[in-house]
Structures are given as structure tokens and as C-alpha cells.
Amino acid sequence: MNRSREQGGTGHREQLRQLDSFTRLRSNQRWDVLDRLDLQIRWGGYGIRVLRCHLTAFQPGQIVPFHQHSEYELHFIPQGRGRVAFEHREYDLKAGMFYITGPNVPHEQWSDEDDPMYEFCLHCDIRALPDDPDILHGWGEDIERSEAEKCVRLLEASSAIPVADRFNAMACFLDAYKIYDEQRVGFYTSLKQSIIQMLLRAVRAFAPEEQTVSIPERDMSAHRYRQARKYMEDNASRPITLEEVALSAGVSTRQLQRIFVKEGNSSFRQELEEVRMTRICSDLATNDKPIEAIALAHGYANVNYLYPVFKKKYGLTPAAYRQRQQVHSKINPYQKEL
User: Where is the domain boundary, 143, 177, 204?
Assistant: First the structure.
């Protein structure tokens, strides 16, 4: 089976799953349960307050006369047919289509006489929030703010003309109802993600085809160096080899050696020695454990191996280093706190 047929089969199964979910939702008549939730979502630099999120049904030929809202309204048609009119034009509506009405856009809607229409509707007020100096940047915060900004700009520029729901935003309504029914750990976060996905998938239909996305990428050499160092720090108390550190970083031993030279200007052995010596120095300065026990705790099975390495690096034996640190500590008793 070729890839396109596989994707087609997957898409068909997804449609059947959604149809089954919609049929069950339609039959239980609990269409307004999400309206009862006071959902206030912070997304990047914006606050989204969900005013309504529900399924509604139009009787055959039912007309909703011209009206407007001060918030955004997203209309998705899961079943049936109808029409929508704006000031100067009318458009057909059918299953699998949606349209967006921004603030203060007058519109009229009516269902077909023979094939009455259902509609998923999301009303939300979206407002820019003042900058909060207490919000930490990093951890994806700047990326999220940028993506939220792009989404809102596309929402503002979107046409009210009905289009096909090419990115399956309608499925997010069904997900939201499922989340409500299950009410598991992470309930609020899951609902927040469903609402954001509704908006994101909807505006993608209006995004320029040539629009490119700037995806942050790692400096893989620096990243693998940090991975290797972290593995060595986590396991420095036992004998470790270049081969196992390379495996943990996902590179060959030869490549890892080159990374150590490039990023740390050192070799594997020097890096491992640096990790162990830093910890040994800390122990010598802060506790009275025997030097043999400290050596053993940090990967030196025989203390005789530690002495020449330590003296070469610091110009002192471990015992002399401890004595110097203790004298310095007495002179400056606040050193540990600082």
C-alpha cells in the first residue's frame, strides 16, 4: 500500500471516529455544558475569555436575523446545510465548512428547508495583556508569545467568507466535550489546549501559503557537550568510559572527542577529571570525611591514584588543600553563605 492510500485510510478512520463522537454528543442533549465553565486563558501576551462554546441546532428553514457581536465568533458546520449573509453577499454552508466573524461584523444565517443544520460555535473575547515583569522568559515563553501574536493577527485579518475546515479545527470541539466528560488530571490545561488549537487550526486556513515558520534549533555540538558533561556529573562516582558517555550523547567516540576539543578545549579524560576534582575539593572544604572515603566516592578506587593527579592540578596534596580551606574558613566564617 502506498503512502497516500495509507494517509487516506487514516483520514477516513478519523472522520468515522469524529462522526461517531458527534452522533453521541448530539443524542445526549448536553450541548451547553462547556458554556457553564468560566474559562480565562493566558496565551502569550493575550488573554482569551471563552464566552460560549457549544453545539446548536437549526430547525428547517430557521433564520437567525442580522446581528453582530463585540467578540470573535467561530462557526463550524458538522452536519446539514444552510446559508450565511453579510452586508452585500450570501454564501452556501455545508458540512465541513466554517467561517469567522470578527467584532462588529453583521451577519444573518439560516438553515436549509430539507437538510437542517448543526453548528459548533466558539465566542471568545481576546485582549492584549499588559507586560508582566514577573513572567519568566525562556522555557518557550518568547516562542509562545510570538505564535500567539501571529495567530491573533491572522484572526484580525481573516475573511468572513466560509471556507473548508482543512485543518480539522472542528475536532477540537469534540475533544473539549470529551475532556469535560472525563475530568481527569490536567482538566483545565487540556481545555486550554483545545481552545488554542481551535483558534490555531482555524486561522491556518487564512495564512499565506508561502509563510515560513522559524523553528528554534539547537547548536548540536554545544548540546551534545552539555549532555556528555551532565552524564559524567551524574555518574562520576563510578568508573565510566568514553564509549558509554558517547552512547549517552548519541554520537561516536571519535565525534565526542572532537566535541570535547571544540567546546571544552580538552579531552574526555580531562573533562572527567575536572568533574571529579570539583566535587572532591567541595568535600575536602566542607566535611571531615577521610580522604580515602572521598576518593572512593568520586570514582578513585585507590587513593594513591588521587594524590599525584590532585597535586599536579592544585599544587597541594588533598590534606594540605583541606587544611588551607579550613584556615580560610576560620578567617572568613561567612564564606559558605556567600
Answer: 204
